[in-house]
Amino acid sequence: MRIADILRIKGHEVYTILANHTVEEAAQLLCKKHVGALIVRGLRGELAGILSERDVIRGIAEAGPGVLQQPVRELMSPDVITCTPDDLINKMLAVMTVHRIRHLPVIEGEHLVGMISIGDLVKHRLQEKIQEVEVLRELNIVRV
Fold first, then answer.
1. CB pairs under 8 A, 24+ apart, for 5-11?
2. Is residue 143 included in any domain, yes or no?
3. Per-residue CA distances from 8 to 1, 19, 50, 113, 115 (Å)
4. In 31-79, which ranges are E strands?
5. What pLDDT, in 10s, does the model give residues 20-72?
6. Is there a domain that residue 144 lies in?
7. CATH of the domain at 51
8. What spatial distance separates the first Cα and last Cα of the chain, rounded to whole Å?
9. How far is it, in rounded angstroms, from Cα 133 to Cα 139?
10. What backbone torsions phi and psi does residue 123 show, to the nearest 5 degrees?
11. Residue 111 in domain
12. pLDDT in tens, 62-104
């Protein structure tokens, strides 16, 4: 299965914030949209980084609540690992595990076409396994 299969179910909506907006604005957007990460864009709209809830918490823990008034670019991760719609789900699970990240922007050509989380991938893999068990039950191969 491919990342495109997850995007077909989940959708392509991605939430972004400009690098010069405050961390407080980012935290409010994370909360309002119920997401764990935002794509950070530069002034020309380019992909500048990613900001996660963990980045915000780490910033507050290290610098105190004043960090909320700093620009997002101060806390974001500028080196963004991305994937494509054609990437395999198992491969991206491994990438996320190795790099200890929870969100991957999905890029097609020059365009941001979605965002997936490790939760999306685990949910999809679980559904696959449930379907496999059901097929085996129907064939009387497995009794669960």
1. 5/89, 5/124, 6/89, 6/116, 6/120, 6/121, 6/124, 7/85, 7/106, 7/113, 7/114, 7/116, 9/124, 10/114, 10/116, 10/120, 11/114
2. no
3. 12, 29, 23, 11, 12
4. 37-41, 47-52
5. 999 999 999 999 999 999 999 998 889 999 999 999 999 999 999 999 999 99
6. no
7. 3.10.580.10
8. 25
9. 10
10. -60, -45
11. yes
12. 999 999 999 999 999 999 999 999 999 999 999 999 999 999 9
| Tokens (6 digits) for 61 | 């823990």
The one-letter amino acid code at 102 reads R
Q: What are phi and psi of 130, to 5 degrees?
A: -60, -45
Q: How many structural domains compose the chain? A: 1
d(CA 137, CA 140): 5
Domain extent at residue 108: 3-138
Count Cβ atoms below 10 Å from residue 92 Cβ, excluding itself: 22
Q: Name the residue among 69, 25, 71 with its Cα closest to residue 48.
A: 71
Cα 103 to chain centroid, rounded: 2
Distances (CA, A) of 6 to 39, 60, 64, 80, 93: 19, 33, 38, 20, 13
Closest CA to 37 of 118, 124, 110, 102: 102
